[in-house]
From TrEMBL:
Pfam families: Glyco_hydro_9. It comes from Hibiscus syriacus. Belongs to the glycosyl hydrolase 9 (cellulase E) family. Its EC number is 3.2.1.4. This is cellulase. Residues 1-89 form the Glycoside hydrolase family domain. InterPro entries: 6-hairpin_glycosidase_sf, 6hp_glycosidase-like_sf, Glyco_hydro_9. Residues 63-74 have a biased composition (Basic and acidic residues). Residues 36-77 are annotated as: Disordered. Keywords: Carbohydrate metabolism, Cellulose degradation, Glycosidase, Hydrolase, Polysaccharide degradation. GO terms for molecular function: cellulase activity.
C-alpha cells in the first residue's frame, strides 16, 4: 500500500482534508457553505477530489491502516510529513544533478548528508 495519494495501485481515498472531501464546483455547481460541507466530510465515500501527491500519516503501531477520513492521525496529510519528503527528494535531485535515475533498485539507499 502506498501512503501517497495517486501513487501505485492502492492508496488512501479518504483523506482527512475538507477540500478533498467536498465535490468540485465543476461537478456540483451549487455553493457549499461551511456547515454544509460536514455532510461530505463525514461521509464514508472516497474523496471526490484526489489530493494527488499528498502523503498521509500511515499505519498505526500495529502496522494497520484504516482508510477512514475520521481517523485523522493516520489519514491526514500534514506539512511535517510532506515537508520531509520534499527535502529527501531535493537531496536525491542534487545528488543526481537532476538526471533521471536509471534502474534504481527498491532496496537502494541514497546516503548523503554533507550540506549543513
Amino acid at each position: 500500500m502506498s501512503y501517497m495519494v495517486g501513487f501505485g495501485s492502492k492508496y488512501p481515498t479518504q483523506l482527512h482534508h475538507r477540500g478533498s472531501s467536498i465535490p468540485s464546483i465543476h461537478t456540483h455547481p451549487n455553493k457549499v457553505g461551511c456547515n454544509d460541507g460536514m455532510s461530505y466530510f463525514s461521509s464514508n465515500n472516497p474523496n471526490p477530489n484526489q489530493h494527488v501527491g499528498a502523503i498521509v500519516g500511515g499505519p498505526n503501531s500495529n502496522d494497520h491502516f484504516d482508510d477512514r477520513r475520521s481517523d485523522y492521525s493516520h489519514s491526514e496529510p500534514t506539512t511535517y510529513i510532506n515537508g520531509a519528503f520534499v527535502g529527501a527528494v531535493a537531496a536525491v535531485l542534487d545528488e543526481t544533478k537532476g538526471e533521471p535515475l536509471q534502474q534504481l533498485q527498491t532496496n537502494t539507499t541514497i546516503n548523503r548528508i554533507d550540506h549543513v
